[in-house]
Fold ADP-ribosylglycohydrolase family protein.
Amino acid sequence: MGSAGDGTVNEPVRRTVLGGEELASERVQRFLGSVTGALIGDALGHRVVSLPWPEIRERFGESGVTSLGPHSGGERMSDGLVVLALSLDGRIRLDRALLRAADATAELRATYELWTSGAAQAPHRFGWLGLHLPQRIAGSRAVEAVAAGISGRHTTLPELLYTAIPAGLWSPSSRDVIAHVEQVCGVLGMSGESVAAVQALAVVLQQTVMTKNYVRGFGQVIEVEADRFGPRRDRVLHLLRTAESSARPDITPEQLEALGDGFDPASALAIAACAVQSAGTDFDEAVRIAVNHSGNSVVTGALAGAIMGASFDGIEIIPSHWAEGLSKSAKLVFRLAQDVPEQLKDFPRDDDEWKQRYPPMSGSSSKPVRPTTAEKPLDAHERFLGSMIGGAVGDALGFAVEFHDIEMIRRHHGPDGVTGPVLRDGVAQISDDTQMMLFTLEGLIRAHVARRMQPTDNDPVPEVQHAYQRWFHTQGQDWARAGGPYAQHLQRPDGWLITHPQLFATRAPGNTCMSALAHFARTGVSATPHNRINDSKGCGGVMRAAPVAVWSNDPAEVFYAAVGTAALTHSHPSGYLSAGVLAVIVHQLIREVPLRESVRLARELLTRWREHEEQLRVLDKAVALAERGPVPPEEIARELGGGWVGEEALAIGLYAVLATEDLRGALLLSVNHSGDSDSTGIVCGNIGGALHGTRAVPAEWQETLELRGLVETVAKDALAEFSPGPPTDPGWAQRYPAW
């Protein structure tokens, strides 16, 4: 750890869900909505927690309990509120420990120990909560459970699920959240299925706060990260899938009870998930469904309230009448929650009043920490991941303005044009470009599996053709027709990638790609540079070419393979030679070759091919234009075109990286023009991501990217397959079957 020379200490930046500037205020509202929803659901559930459903119906009518009654005169906290209050306080103190270079896990443990030991132990360390909390938590079952957990005894209190609400803010990476929750659960003495349930809930809340879409949250758990939860995850995931399939607007308490009684974490989470998905966008209905059953209505209500409160516009969607029925203890917890965003922003408070409010629990550095970007050097893995994720981000940025000229872009987005992701349904949607990039990469993985089985099989193009026919099937085409000769061997398309329903979205697929794949389905004959089926030089060949960089250590082989995959749909030389150039540039950047040297080698390989002159001319113009730095969109159009054809899309994407110093600036330059913005964006992201790595892709852009987890997973699978020791287990062969 080095000194900055002014009394501060350099420390790597910690990224939280509430950091950044562009989306932080919206996320704060959703986080506060999550806390408020939990408080409401907890209170509503307490009205019926000991009652079977028939008695609830008899007392409150066919809809069950629907409103908060007058709370009791006492201000003792419920077990759930105790856990939530201690966890919110611990989250603030944990972050303060990180920023002063102390042991964050030790700080969290010390915070829990403080609240379970009594005020006489260290009253000065309670901070502002010392005036309010001790008398409210004395004798609580939750305090006893936390005390048992931190002393090493196993705990199963279902209210410990509430720890997921602040834990989900740990990082924009769901995998980091999963790892963090495992540590938190270890501190609290949780194990097995309980850990998996808290991890799953934390990821649901993290994704929902980031994207305002609880569907994205459940999808991240069930589809993307399913194999990363604790070892006792099977029942948790099974119940969540059952909850999803059972959800319906008219669901009955009896149907809800088929998921369990809510007295264990897995069934409590499943009931809440089913209630939320049954309610759609209606907060009142979500908590009503969640509490009206013969089980642990308190926890199921709180979890449903937390998830729905984190959705859409957060606290703004919660009807104001609920606040009137909340107790003083609940309002105290909400006041504590308001301090969490203040601490988790990029530059949190550290004044004397804040230090007294949240005093340190464990040892610390005597110097304040200054966040810095000091990080380990880039390696080939991060560069390749950066290329794939950067490409998808560029595609999403551009897809929002594809088919718009620059005047329309400025009219809709301001004088600077697009300055960040444009969200639709809570995410930055990808186009067919990223879809085909993923299927290209899947085809390459399967080709390499085949090459391991038969070393003389060194041509990836047949497997990539097969992958493209699977993509063609996702675009509304029946497999029997889309699969062509492959459908004669398979009743349904095989492999893991095709099982993701999100890939079946139709996102403006190119006519040339669709017609070329339909031609193969009819004839069974693949197009090649010598067997041409059209005269198209559209950008559909280059937009999906970057993954070919992993195919071989030999750049000439990479060029050849990229040409072959692009020629499957685009028969004009500029349509497939542009793909070869892009793949080689990415190939070289991954190997730490400087950008201009990478372009020089790709240029030299290009000149070995017939009919390269047009592609070469536009490539050279892009390099020359970059010497002038960023130029207005109108000049990009005059010099390089609109990006609708292969040589132009490559030129604009490459120019944007050459003309700028950082990936953010390059991506914005590449999409703000009158042309095919998603394709120029994906090319720019492929090149810039390989140059700068994943760390250069703005975190807040990654967080909102549709299918971000899927892109990362397939990219990491490619790195595993092309490593010196690729996977050999049967599961891998089912995931990426070879022919």
Strands lie at 9-12, 369-372. Residues 24-46 form the longest helix (23 residues). The chain has two domains: 28-64+77-356, 380-735.
